[in-house]
Amino acid sequence: MNWLVRGLNSSIGTKYLMAVTGLLLLLFVITHMVGNLQIYLGPEVFNGYAEMMQGLGTLLWAMRLGLLLILLVHVRCAVKLTAEAKEARPVPYAMKRSVAASYASRTMFMTGMIVLAFIVFHILHFTTGTFHADLYAEAHEGSHPDMYSMFVKSFHHAPTAIAYMTAMVLVGIHLSHGVSSLFQSMGFVRPKYREMIRVTGLGITGAIVAGNISMPLMCIMNIVEVPGVSS
């Protein structure tokens, strides 16, 4: 067991663990987006999806705790690798590489921390109802929560919509380098794979950003509305 702990604590082990947790988080982001995109199918479908998720009960909370653990491990790996890189890299080399490196790669840690803050905000918004508490209470008045109305009305509020869209741009910056790094850390390091990895990473990132930005954008433009409620 000690050899496993030592292996995971090594630089290579930490990079691999970060790649695996990053992949799991990426799959969650895609799955979460696909679920939310059902907002375009109308109140009945979206509320049915939300009710199905809430109906998972204990399993849903187990999934949330598992996701939290994965996220914490990913953050811990990021902090460790960032600290090791600063210790091992001479200042002149760091400056030279900083100029040559892409903006996304140079800001990975910063965008990651901002994305983490956004996740907290997102949970306080839709899971606990701390933000837009009035809409959260209104959505839970009946026997069947009307999450469609809460979702749409929240994004009719311009500051909220803009905050989400800005966060998605930062998610995109993080993923544009993160997805490529993920594949490379898992062994796809041959030169012939580089262009394929780059294009795949940008494609996945573009789809995630476009899909997630489209929802608050369509709401703030009143293209997606609550039936019977004029904006």
Can you walk through the features of this model?
80% of the residues lie in helices and 0% in strands. The protein is mainly α and 231 residues long. Helix 1 crosses helix 2 and helix 2 (11-36) packs across helix 10. The chain has a single domain (2-220), classed as 3 helical TM bundles of succinate and fumarate reductases.
Descriptors:
single chain, 231 residues, mainly alpha, 3 helical TM bundles of succinate and fumarate reductases, 80% helix
As a whole number of angstroms, the C-alpha radius of gyration is 20 Å
The string of secondary-structure elements, in order, is HHHHHHHHHHH
CATH class: Mainly Alpha
Beta strand count: 0
Task: Please identify, by name, the CATH architecture.
Answer: Up-down Bundle
Level of helix content? over 70%
Mean pLDDT: 86
Number of domains: 1
Distance between the termini: 60 Å
| Helical segment count | 11
Taking the sheet with the most strands, its summary is: none
Question: Structural class given helices, strands, pairing?
Answer: mainly alpha
